Amino acid sequence: MDSDLRNTPGTRFRLWPGLWMPGVILGIGILVSVALANTLARTIADLGLEAYHARHQALVATIAARLQHTPGQQLPASLTSALATDLPEGLQLRIDTLARHTKQAVLELGNVDEPRDSEALRTELTLPGRHWMVTTTPSAGWIDRASNPARWQILTAGAGISVLAALLMLVACRRLAIRNARIRQQQAQLDRDQQQITNLQVEKSVLRHALNDSEARSRDLVRLGGAVIAELDHQGRIGFVSAQIADMLGRAPSDLTDQPFEQLVSEQDRSRFRESLDSARSEEDLTRTDLALIGAEDARPVRVCLRLKTIKDPVHGITGFRLSATPD
Fold first, then answer.
1. 3-class SS at 104?
2. 225-327 domain in CATH 3.30.450.20?
3. Residue 75, C-beta contacts closer than 8 angstroms, at least 6 positions apart
4. Does the keyword Transmembrane apply (predicted)?
5. How far is CA 267 from CA 212, 262, 273, 292, 293, in A?
């Protein structure tokens, strides 16, 4: 395809048609992918936030259920172990007492590097002999841990599909450019051929006119001349003879067609006529001889100066003779 494009005129300095379409497809595809990724990420983040709230409430419910009938301020070791097991990674649990002012937490579980205090949930828990504040604090990005990968996956997939569609459209534009260039080339060739045909028609008309003029001139010269003009085939039979034969010998030209010209030569001159034919064949030049022609039975022989010239074809050689007979 590259060679076709380079060899096709009109594609090197001409923009491909429809080049805006791959750009529009790519731009719209990326915008739609970004919008869809953000929408889905927000939805997943909302679900993550609901899951975080549910996890917080589940921890509070577990603590309340386990300590409902257990008096005292301290937490049983079994409850502490169960909470440590159930606490997910990235979530911090802290229990503070509200009964007295102290900075010492009743329980603190979970090691969070970057706690997000703004997203912390607090629940006041009142049990027999206990007045506590249960606080859960997520790490940075814990709620969005599922939405961020989903956002990038959608962006990657959408951008990849958009780029692929744009490339396919670019290939289509390239093919269209090659086709248009070939159409322009064919149209230019068609115009040149049409112009050449027009020129040939003009030349044909000129040649036909010249040929008609030449034929008319030849007919006029034959009519104006006093000589008999004839064409013979290679065997000496008459193919054409001018109308002067009627005035000279009293014979109609139509009656002499396909007849041997030798029959119009007097018997004593026929050998000389044959020698003239042989001499014209061998020398391929104009041959002149004097002899008598005879016409009707009651007509007198007419002495003429006979001139012979061979008709030569490049393929078949000598195909006949042209002659003129001028009365002496």
1. coil
2. yes
3. 67, 95, 106, 107
4. yes
5. 40, 9, 10, 9, 9
